[in-house]
Amino acid sequence: MRVASRASLGRRSRRRLASAATAVVLFALCTSLPVHADTASELAAAKKRLSALENEVESALAQKDSLQEQANALAKEISDVETQIALTQRKIELTEKALEKARTRLLYLQNRLNLRARDAYIKGPGGIFEVVLGSSSFADMQQRLALYDAVQQNDADLANQVEEQRVKLALKKADLHALEEDLVSQRAALVDRQQALTEKLTALNNVISSLDEKKREAQALVKELTARKAREEAAAAARLAGSIGGGGGPASGGVFQYCPVRGGVGYSDDFGAPRYGGGYHPHAGNDMFAAYGTPVVAPFSGYAYNSANGLGGNAVIVRGGAGYVYNAHLSSYGTLGNVSAGTVVGYVGNTGDAQGTPYHDHFEWHPYSIPSNPYRSAYGYTVIGSAIDPYPYLNAVC
Asked: Tens digit of pLDDT for each residue in 274-322?
């Protein structure tokens, strides 16, 4: 019995050792199973391509950030020059009024002197004799002569002073016109730079969109190849397990959704800047400078309708659930009526009182409920009418 027990124990021990050895071999082979050569090479190439595209996208986004910063800075400069032009035009208007007043005063004084001279000519020396003969005493005569001379001299002095003032005002007006021309020239140079930048931004946005599409395709390919690799490894492991006696197989806003101007755009916080078109008023929105014809889109879903007027020119209002936006100075209209977020409702221009100024979309945000602590603009304004500064909302999507 002892001998049989030893034999039985020996067989069981050998079976356990063989089973363990099989498991070790199976584990070792499964961890180093060769994946199909095509899949392995394709996956490696796809990952390399994806990494390259991610680097390109990151580099392009860094360039875009730099260009966007420059475009926004230029937009701020253009807005500042617009404000200076408006203030200069107001000064010219006030100077012209003062100049007209001086002309009227000078004409009045000259007429008085002319009438007095004419009267003296008609009366001749008798006029002075009457002053002398009508005097009750020598002292009275001296006083009368002094008064006569003083009246004459006073009118002449006033006329000279008014003439000096008129000359100064005329010089000031000329200086203001020269300043206005210089500012307009500065604005033209800034607009040229702005347009060049927005063109670069538009081109770069197109490049980024193309790269993003290629990156998504590369990501999908890597995902597909990774899944194929896993299936091939599982199938190989199942075949190997069956061939060596193994069992079984593998276990089975924000408020805005879109930037209102689609393409290269520059803007700054000019909410509350002084404007004089149609009379003084603070700027109730942000000017978004872009190339002529750049699409203007609905920042959220809602209803878009024509709101053309003398100041805004071609204008579109888009009403949504939280409020409405106003886009002015458009060159033409897009889709009106019920619109989804991102639908083109118009195109950038300079109609209305913006004729002759850089192409831009005057953009206003009118929420139905004013925030309890609305953003304060660089000009110190929080609310103008029913509009609030859209600048922080634009920064979230542009």
From this structure: 988 777 889 999 999 999 999 999 999 999 999 999 999 999 999 999 9
Phi, psi of 196, deg, nearest 5: -65, -40
Per-residue confidence (pLDDT) for residue 12, from 0 to 100: 43
Q: Provide the angle, in degrees to the nearest 10, between the axes of the packed helices 138-243 and 2-30.
A: 140
pTM beyond 0.90, yes or no? no
Domain ranges across the chain: 1-32, 52-205, 266-395
Say how many residues make up the chain. Answer: 398
Q: What does the angle CA 203 – CA 206 – CA 208 come to, to the nearest 5 degrees?
A: 110
Q: In 73-88, which positions are buried (b, 16+ CB within 10 angstroms) versus exposed (e)?
A: ebbbbbbbbbbbbbeb
For residues 67 and 197, the answer to whether their CB atoms sit within 8 Å is yes
Q: Topology of domain 266-395, per CATH?
A: Glucose Permease (Domain IIA) (2.70.70)
Amino acid code (one letter) for 319: R
pLDDT digits over 124-152, tens only?
Answer: 544 555 555 555 555 555 555 555 555 56
Give mean pLDDT, residues 69-80.
85
Q: Which helix (H) or strand (E) holds 134?
A: none
Instruction: Give the pairing type, strands 274-275 and 266-267.
Output: unpaired
Residue the block writes with tokens 């990952």:
47
Unique residue bearing structure tokens 């579109």: 316
Q: Which two tokens stand for residue 229?
A: 């690799």
Q: Using alpha carbons, select from 244, 236, 249 the residue that is nearest to residue 31.
A: 236
Q: Confirm if 35 and 233 have CB atoms less than 8 A apart.
A: yes
Alpha helices in the chain (DSSP H): 2-30, 37-123, 126-133, 138-243, 391-395
169-176 contacts: CB < 8 A, separation 24 or more? 169/95, 169/98, 169/99, 169/102, 170/99, 172/95, 173/92, 173/95, 173/96, 173/99, 176/88, 176/91, 176/92, 176/95
Strand partners, 323: 367
Pairing, β 332-333 against β 314-319: unpaired
Question: Would you say residue 245 has pLDDT above 70?
Answer: no
Q: Give the Cα separation of 3 and 384 in Å (integer).
A: 106
User: Residue 355 corresponds to which tokens in the numbers above?
Assistant: 């004729």
In CATH, what number does 52-205 get? 1.10.287.1490
